[in-house]
Amino acid sequence: MHSASPAPRRAARPTFWKRLWAGRRAYLFLLPTFVLLGYFAYYPAYIAFTRAFTDWDGFNPPTFTGLENFRRALTDPAMGQASANVGLWIVLGLLLAVIPPLVVAELIFHLRGPRRQYAYRTLFVVPIVVPSLVLLLLWTTFYRTDGVLNQLLGSVGLGAWQRSWLADQDTALYALIFLGFPYVDAFYLLLLYAGLQSIPKDVLEAAKLDGAVGPRRVWTIDLPLLRPQLFLIAVLSVIGNAQYFLSPLVITSGGPGYATTVPALLMYNTAVKFGEYGYALSIAALLFVVIVLLTVVAQRVARAQGD
Amino acid sequence: MRPPRSLGELLRQGVLLILGLVSLFPIYFAVVNSFKNPVQYAQNLLNVPPSLHPENYLVAWRAVASPMVNSLVVTFTSVLFTLLLAVLSAYAFALMRFVGRRVLFALVFALLLIPDFLTLIPLYIQIKSLDLPNNYLSIILPTIAAGQAFAILVLKTAFENLPKEILEAARIDGASHAQILARVVVPMSVPVLISVAIIRLIPVWNEFILPSLVLDEAHRTLPVALVYFQGGGNSNPSTPNYGALMASYVLSAVPLVVLFAFLMRSYIEGLTSGAVKA
């Protein structure tokens, strides 16, 4: 980050203060934003990083404990299970974030006529009126023993597969990851569709002359040209899933056992339920480091492919 | 609509129609089951019940009416002030010259690198220790802060792309920055302001975790109230009144349905243009 050090020359000094004074209206415009950001964004972030190295109950002054919290987090078996869970979630979540919206975007893009395309685009955006928490609660009922999913399995002769999806050790995590069929995120869909639209017409014409149609066109033209959008979606999905813990919190409380516990939920419970704020923040810091690393790796991969 | 001319077109439309209908299924499920009594619910989860039980909505309304008001207050105020503050800052970044502009903008940009979970716990403690005159503010203030980065980035780009001649003409006429902002920049940026507002509205309306921590019972927003209404949150074995539960889900979607009935087009256009460029 740049430091705002004024010019070192003595003669420049008064001009700097004059320039600062000249910008007073701008600072006034920025003041409300930065007051709020200071209190509700920068300071909490500072607390998060510094208190991760302390024993802190949230009220009394923290005592510095060095790396003790991190040692504890890295050796905690619950944290091990939680990390494995979130790893699986990130990988499967990435596939669900990329493939269904891409397939639907391609299908819509190849429909005849802008009106028909607009109609189908709207169809897939309409579900955003369902509050995300309501969707979670609805899927909770779908997964119940007497829910829609088991009834569906029973009616197609797969009664043997019926189970209590969220209470079963083996299926609870998958049930949460695969919640929300058919996974066509409205934002990702619109992003990819806009990307397809921005492919120049002459590129498509040339491809057609070369015989690149259908799946071959998707593979040789669309995917390479959609790389920026796909990269954005991949990064958003990985970052989003790494820190996501709403459905384990609301639906399963991380159970049965630790089957659906993820590090972010562990952090939440450690702080909110058990009051160990220092330890909770060390989990948050570890998670943050992992997310930054994943983002950097993704960027490297994207750049390497771009060359 | 013209009939499809080829097999491929027919196939594409068929797949899209099926997927589209499946993604609407939760809405269908909530609506039809909201009119059932417990017996009808146990018998069949998918049909339109032969006799309707609209009284479910009375039960649901009693549970969600005041959280609905709370959600409307919190969402409306948060989004309005998010815009207000972001407009001022974006104007300064886009159209004013001052010392430290790049550093301060980098600070705003850096916010995108700070994920929510990292600040959640410190934020929770800070808000609890803060003596606010009104409990609503304990969620409104952090929500305004959380919206700043995105709103400022989009608005700054939009303001920079306004025609320079008009801004120059206003300046020559002796208009102050505040006047230019209020009489020229804002009126010319209404579409992008609407886009930013509705894109921000959805996550604010849906927010659960921080509100569940900082709001007291009287100020609970809808998502929080729905989890309590459903019964503690866990997938508990006791059977709640599903009809009323479904009715509460339907009611909680009504404000967004109304909003999108008017603004769907600008939402789609906003997401595909403004957000992507940002």
UniProtKB/TrEMBL annotation, chain A:
Domain ABC transmembrane type-1 intervals: 83-298
Kindly give the membrane topology term recorded for this protein: Multi-pass membrane protein
Task: Enumerate the UniProt keywords alphabetically.
Answer: Cell membrane, Membrane, Transmembrane, Transmembrane helix, Transport
| Superkingdom assignment | Bacteria
Q: Which InterPro entries match?
A: ABC_transporter_permease, MetI-like, MetI-like_sf
Q: Where in the cell is it found?
A: Cell membrane
PANTHER family xrefs: ABC TRANSPORTER PERMEASE PROTEIN, INNER MEMBRANE ABC TRANSPORTER PERMEASE PROTEIN YCJO
Q: What is this protein called?
A: Carbohydrate ABC transporter membrane protein 1 (CUT1 family)
The scientific name of the source species is: Deinococcus yavapaiensis KR-236
From TrEMBL, chain B:
Instruction: Tell me the protein's name.
Output: Carbohydrate ABC transporter membrane protein 2 (CUT1 family)
Q: Which family does it belong to?
A: Belongs to the binding-protein-dependent transport system permease family.
Residue ranges of the TM segments: 12-31, 72-96, 103-125, 137-159, 180-202, 242-263
Q: What is the lineage of its organism?
A: Bacteria, Thermotogati, Deinococcota, Deinococci, Deinococcales
List, for all copies, the residue spans of the domain called ABC transmembrane type-1.
68-263
SUPFAM superfamilies, sorted: MetI-like
- CDD domains recorded: TM_PBP2
- Tell me which PANTHER family the record gives: ABC TRANSPORTER PERMEASE PROTEIN MG189-RELATED, ABC TRANSPORTER PERMEASE PROTEIN MG189-RELATED-RELATED
**Protein's membrane topology:** Multi-pass membrane protein
